[in-house]
Specification:
367 residues, alpha/beta, Aspartate Aminotransferase, domain 2, Aspartate Aminotransferase, domain 1, 2 domains, seven-stranded mixed beta sheet, three-stranded antiparallel beta sheet, 38% helix
Length: 367
């Protein structure tokens, strides 16, 4: 059993996708252009933001957001260490330094109680990451950002349409950054990302940022990047967006089935979701005793799983110069040792989930 099966989703909407891709070719709208514009409008509306700027990855979305705020050399940005490497990497790409914070032990988002200790005169922004599909605890983080005059940029790469209270994530700070990597809840057929914002000036700056710092063709006001979204990706995302709610419901149903069948396996801690929020289950992330052996056993029984992530960012070789020690962030380090992502995608069946859970049960009964 695959960890994720993108082919099933394609087959269900094949005609629409094929027609959309053909239109990009007949219209020669390959780079940005009308299909990207249409997606930007629709995605901004879906998230509840005024603007969306389509770019060519989640990493470039984060990088553009930071650059748009003028963050760079000499600055610090607070990030969780329990995240994909791209979050701190985007900070480093600007010349600023990522300052790591541990996660909290129930929902695995950045530990807001540990943020204020890390704020210095150099701190310019906080990037909470809404990991696995569940929101970070935003209310206190918004307060901390306001109180300390810091920008709040949300990394929503794993949380398309996640709600914190009544509002969709991505709209709590100055900008929300999304990845549309193929395996995401809303996935392109290649690389893509977006920044959403309500800020008029930032919107214009990001539109120029993705296009070599150009507000007007061949006039370059600053040094930017080629971060434009491809027309093919805009077209694919635009076809998929109306299905996202249904696919999210299916993920949530699958999560409920997992919870039912994992009940009683004491060695597994299933994911928690705050009652007030909407968890979109990008990943079905559990903590598992004897994780590595269980993972191999599942593989031996044809069940592929993932680890998100085996090395927390503060212990990555790329950040060895920052001299964090093993033991600095115990919660994130425990997650690195025990976290396991079980197969999760909308089309996963109840029978498949039952098989996965029965196999897990067998493992713990015999180990
Ligand atoms: C939390 C997080 N941030 C950033 C990214 C980077 O997105 P991309 O791969 O589209 O550059 C990802 C993608 O995996 C992610 O999961």
């Amino acid at each position: 059993m695959d960890f994720i099966d993108l082919r099933l989703q394609y087959l269900a909407i094949q005609n629409e996708i094929d027609t959309a891709l053909k239109s990009v070719m007949t219209d020669c709208a390959f780079s940005a252009g009308k299909y990207v514009n249409a997606f930007e409008e629709n995605f901004a509306r879906a998230v509840g933001a005024k603007y969306c700027v389509g770019v060519n990855s989640g990493t470039s979305a984060l990088h553009s957001a930071l650059l748009g705020l003028g963050i760079g050399l000499g600055d610090e940005v607070i990030v969780p260490t329990n995240t994909f490497f791209a979050t701190p990497e985007a900070v480093s790409l600007t010349g600023a330094v990522p300052v790591f914070v541990d996660c909290e032990p129930v929902y695995y988002g950045i530990d807001y109680k540990a943020i204020e200790d890390k704020i210095s005169s150099k701190t310019k922004a906080i990037i909470p990451v809404h990991l696995y599909g569940e929101s970070a605890e935003l209310a206190p983080i918004v307060d901390i950002a306001k109180k300390n005059d810091l920008h709040l940029i949300e990394d929503c790469s794993q949380s398309h349409l996640t709600k914190y209270g009544e509002k969709t994530v991505g709209t709590f700070g100055i900008m929300g950054c999304f990845s549309f990597y193929p395996g995401k809840n809303l996935g392109a057929y290649g690389e893509a990302g977006a920044v959403v914002t309500n800020d008029d000036q930032l919107y214009l700056k990001l539109m120029a940022m993705r296009d070599h710092g150009s507000y007007e063709k061949y006039h370059h006001d600053f040094v930017g990047h080629n971060y434009r979204m491809e027309g093919f990706q805009g077209a694919v995302l635009n076809v998929k967006l109306p299905y996202l709610k249904k696919w999210t419901d299916m993920r949530q149903q699958n999560a409920a089935i997992y919870r039912k069948h994992l009940n009683g396996i004491g060695e597994i801690t299933p994911p928690s979701a705050r009652k007030s929020d909407t968890h979109v289950y990008h990943l079905y992330s559990v903590l598992a005793k004897n994780r590595n052996k269980l993972r191999q056993y599942l593989l031996d029984n044809s069940i592929a799983t993932g680890i998100h992530y085996p090395i927390p960012c503060h212990l990555q070789k790329a950040y060895s110069h920052l001299a964090y020690q093993c033991g600095s962030f115990s919660c994130s380090e425990t997650i690195a040792d025990e976290q396991l992502s079980l197969p999760m995608y909308p089309e996963l069946t109840e029978n498949q989930i039952e098989y996965i859970c029965a196999t897990i049960k067998n493992f713990y009964q015999s180990n």
